[in-house]
Design a protein that fits this description.
Blueprint (H helix, E strand, L loop, with lengths): L9 H4 L2 H4 L7 H4 L7 E2 L28 H4 L15 H12 L13 E4 L1 H13 L6 E4 L6 H8 L3 E4 L11 H7 L5 E7 L11 H8 L7 E5 L22 E6 L12 E4 L2 H10 L7 H10 L2 H24 L6 E5 L6 E6 L9 H15 L1 E2 L1 E2 L9 E5 L3 H30 L8 H12 L4
Parallel strand pairs: 1-11, 3-4, 3-5, 5-6, 6-7
Antiparallel strand pairs: 2-8, 7-8, 9-10, 10-13, 12-13
Helix pairs in contact: 6-7, 13-14
The protein binds pyridoxal-5'-phosphate.
The site of pyridoxal-5'-phosphate has 14 residues, from helix 6.
């Protein structure tokens, strides 16, 4: 059919910063969860949802026994819009964190925003505080990519103050200096960090919160906090600091990435802003129902048992990886459900992006084991980020990694010999650049 003539021109009508966006790539675009792959790339919970589905009882009881009703979606109620306030869900989230309490004032539902994953809160904070094309956010690479993606979508400029490798601690003097810029409205920090696995010390957070001139908000993303030692969450501190937001999610330790439920703990004033600007029915009825179930004692037991299994497998990875020839050191810390590990140019060599990229590609394409190449992130040269899987997945990963490294070094040796004889190929630097870029574009 012939196109109608129209004054409409997408390229001048849509916002330039939106036209400039690259199509969003996420973990499951590249390697599917079709049962053939071992997915150690998106920091999901390999042991499954934190829901006690094995020992369901017929009837609800005092809350310590999982009940069928907890998990049954009220199908006949789906014609009605969900509760826009989600007070019961918010209270359960407060109950979870009030036990960690390092403050005398308990959290209440007035301290909360709940949304479609913590990604919704990341974006809503930008919309609440930053004027497009005017204000800025401050991020500390290497960090979670969604802060940058959301900033681009909202036409907000980025200031970067990198973390200090190899521990990835905060550069407090540089941050203090940067926060003198009055157009910086938000500082996004991640603790435990992605991809660093490092928990930031409360003293550093307190130092930033008491900056002498900065009129802005510190957003502390605690997506992985339940893998850190108990009591590490800064959520209770929001009752003392009007400029603190703590993000959490049910996607990681709770194993519920599929329901999309994230939370922002903050002052009642900021929570009011976030709740005012959200879409009214952002949390669906099934999501709310499953989230509330997951936060009840009988189901929390399952989450805690799964978490203990993940921590045991994390310890195994930390002990076993350095035994494989060609695996270098770990960077960052071990407070999340992943590790960041260097791959070397040769056994005993130096961290090497080319080798790490080859290993990443061969693991995924030849052997169905998908990890994440992070070698282009600040301070992460030669690094792969590996999500902790089940015991069987960790076995498989360790075996395949040893095999792939042997293969890659063997080929490298033969290429070297051929090179000496004058017929070898040194590889195409442009091609490697493109492959590294493609492997780095996935957000998460
Ligand atoms: C640091 C960090 N924050 C937030 C998220 C997104 O979480 P959600 O699934 O709640 O949107 C992720 C996901 O990988 C993450 O790594």
């Amino acid at each position: 059919m012939a196109q109608r003539r129209s004054p409409f021109n997408l390229s001048t009508c849509a916002r330039p910063n939106i036209l400039a966006l690259e199509p969003y790539r996420c973990a499951r675009d590249d390697y599917k969860d079709d049962g053939t792959n071992i997915l150690l790339d998106a920091n999901e919970n390999a042991y499954g949802p934190g829901l006690n589905v094995d020992k369901l009882q017929g009837a609800s009881s005092n809350g310590s026994v999982a009940s069928k009703e907890d998990l049954e979606v009220d199908l006949l109620g789906l014609n009605r819009y969900p509760d826009p306030h989600q007070t019961e869900l918010k209270q359960l989230l407060c109950d979870l964190r009030n036990t960690d309490s390092n403050t005398s004032t308990p959290l209440t539902p007035a301290n909360l925003f709940v949304g479609v994953g913590s990604d919704e809160a990341i974006d809503n904070l930008l919309r609440a505080f930053c004027r497009p094309n005017h204000d800025k956010i401050l991020v500390c690479p290497p960090t979670y990519g969604m802060y940058t993606v959301s900033a681009q979508i909202n036409d907000i400029a980025l200031v970067k103050v990198p973390l200090l490798p190899p521990t990835f601690s905060l550069d407090l003097p540089a941050l203090t200096l940067a926060l003198a810029d009055p157009t910086i409205k938000l500082l996004y920090l991640c603790s435990p960090g992605n991809p660093t696995g490092t928990t930031l010390p409360p003293s550093a957070i307190e130092t930033l919160l008491s900056h002498p001139t900065w009129n802005g908000v510190l957003v502390l993303d605690e997506a992985y906090i339940d893998f850190a030692p108990d009591g590490a969450s800064a959520a209770p501190l929001v009752t003392e600091h009007p400029n603190l937001v703590v993000l959490q999610t049910l996607s990681k330790a709770f194993g519920l990435a599929g329901i999309r439920l994230g939370a922002a703990f903050t002052s009642p004033q900021i929570a009011t802003l976030l709740n005012a600007l959200k879409a009214p029915y952002n949390v669906s009825t099934p999501t709310s129902q499953l989230a509330r179930a997951a936060l009840r004692p009988a189901h929390l037991e399952t989450m805690r048992a799964n978490r203990a299994r993940i921590l045991a497998q994390r310890d195994r990875l930390v002990a076993a990886l350095p035994q494989i020839p060609g695996v270098g050191g770990f960077l960052g810390g071990f407070d999340a459900n992943f590790v960041l590990v260097q791959i070397l140019s040769a056994p005993g060599g130096t961290p090497c992006n080319e080798t790490a990229l080859r290993v990443y590609e061969r693991l995924a394409e030849g052997r169905g084991v998908v990890v994440r190449f992070r070698g282009r992130e600040w301070g992460c040269g030669g690094c792969l980020r590996v999500t902790v899987g089940t015991e069987r997945e960790v076995d498989r990963f360790l075996g395949e990694l040893g095999g792939v490294l042997g293969e890659v070094y063997g080929e490298r040796g033969r290429e070297g010999d051929e090179g000496k004889a004058g017929s070898g190929s040194k590889g195409d630097a442009g091609d490697e650049e493109r492959r590294e870029e493609a492997a780095s574009k996935v957000v998460g």
